[in-house]
Amino acid sequence: QVQLVESGGGAEQAGGSLTLSCTASRIPECMGWFRQAPGKEREGVATANIVGSPTYYADSVKGRFTIVRNNAQNTIYLQMTSLKPEDTAMYYCAAKYGDCPTSAVEIQYKYWGQGTQVTVSS
Fold first, then answer.
1. Are 76 and 108 in contact (CB under 8 A)?
2. Residue 53: pLDDT band with limits 50, 70, 90
3. For burial by CB atoms within 10 Å, which of 40, 46, 82, 92 has the most?
4. How far is Cα 55 from Cα 57, in angstroms, rounded to an integer?
5. Under DSSP, is residue 79 helix (H, G, I), strand (E, B) or coil?
6. How far is CA 25 from the centre of its chain?
7. Pairing relation of β-strands 10-13 and 116-121?
């Protein structure tokens, strides 16, 4: 069993930055971030294996968001810059054993955090 605890959400103006953190009770091979806006399906944002480069970024966040793993602290971060109102969503940390798939599909991930809200105003 893996427990995930997110932090770092909040309100920010468009163009600003936020960093989300997720600490795991034990470290699985694949960890990542998903988000769900009101009335929309949950979508993958970014994922990364325990070693190596990130495995996935959504097209909508490429060049603006960076996923970083700190394996020594069982923590991943999502560094978000140039925030847009359309980034407003509940952000969830997710994890699975085994390598990250090249896509980011909700059903592939077994462990989930409770989410942290990000609100971007224009």
1. no
2. confident
3. 46
4. 7
5. strand
6. 17
7. parallel
How far apart CA 86 and CA 35 sit, in angstroms, is 11
Other Cβ atoms less than 10 A from the Cβ of 98: the count is 11
- The pLDDT of residue 52 is 82
Contact 77, 70 (CB under 8 A): yes
Cα distance between residue 16 and residue 64, in whole Å:
11
Express each pLDDT in 25-45 by its tens digit.
Answer: 998 999 999 999 999 999 999
What tens digit of pLDDT does each residue of 62-102 get? 999 999 999 899 999 999 999 999 999 999 999 999 999 99
Token pair of 19 as six digits: 């960093």
Cα–Cα distance measured from residue 117 to residue 63, given in angstroms and rounded to the nearest whole number: 21
